[in-house]
Amino acid sequence: DAGVIQSPRHEVTEMGQEVTLRCKPISGHDYLFWYRQTMMRGLELLIYFNNNVPIDDSGMPEDRFSAKMPNASFSTLKIQPSEPRDSAVYFCASSLRRYEQYFGPGTRLTVT
Amino acid sequence: EDQVTQSPEALRLQEGESSSLNCSYTVSGLRGLFWYRQDPGKGPEFLFTLYSAGEEKEKERLKATLTKKESFLHITAPKPEDSATYLCAVLITDSWGKLQFGAGTQVVVTP
Q1: pLDDT digits (tens, 9 = 90+) for A62-77
Q2: I need a surface site. Which of A72, B61, B80, B111 has the fewest CB within 10 A?
Q3: pLDDT digit string (tens) for B14-64?
């Protein structure tokens, strides 16, 4: 299996622009998670899905962030408009039932 | 409030010098405790899951143990390739699969 796939790996954008991060989970996994990692706050859960349905989005910072999972093999995390404080590494992870989560390589986002 | 605390924040070891990392937790109900390894520029890599006090898991030079209030990750005779940040995370009873991560311990093993 290829593992969790994320794209792009790096994204540099200007403040105010829309950013879309993409994730392909491991085939057969029914949970998908979006995390953000910074030096100051560590690894934070933003939102997670079970069978393509959002279960808990309490970690989403504000309305500028949105996530979708249109099918079992694809999810997006969108930031509109982006701000410099959104700069971080964003990880996608997937799991089978509620067991161990497998992480993707991450997307390093820089907002100038 | 549920909390996960890892210590020390950083650890520098000589090759072959065994040591232990600590993960203490105060949660309402533990369903599982997970250990991950993270290399610079990469996503966390799953190592172990522990479900009940007294349980132990081993993988090469790593051994994880669990009590009712904390978990230890023992590194026996480490090698430079064991250098990484080690993260622990807890899955609590009512969390529906939501992991709460500690801040991690950065381990550096020198030859």
Answers
A1: 899 999 999 999 999 9
A2: B111
A3: 999 999 999 999 887 888 999 999 999 999 999 999 999 999 999 999 999
Among A21, A50, A43, smallest CA distance to B38 is for A43
Confidence of residue B2 (pLDDT cuts 50, 70, 90): confident
* B59 near A CB under 8 A: no
| Chain A interface residues (partner B, CB cutoff 8 A) | 4, 31, 33, 42-43, 45, 48, 50, 55-56, 91, 93, 95, 97-106
H-assigned helices in A1-112: none
3-state secondary structure chain A: CCCCEEECCEEEECCCCCEEEEEECCCCCCEEEEEEEECCCEEEEEEEEECCEEEECCCCCCCCEEEEEEECCEEEEEECCCCHHHCEEEEEEEECCCCCCEECCCEEEEEC
The chain A residue lying nearest B101, using CA atoms, is: A43
Question: Are the Cβ atoms of A103 and B103 closer than 8 angstroms?
Answer: no
CA atoms within 13 A on the CB side of A5: 7
Kindly determine whether residue A45 and residue B103, on different chains, have CB atoms separated by under 8 Å. Answer: no
d(CA B16, CA B35): 22
Residue B34 confidence (pLDDT):
95
pLDDT band at B94 (very low <50, low <70, confident <90, very high): low
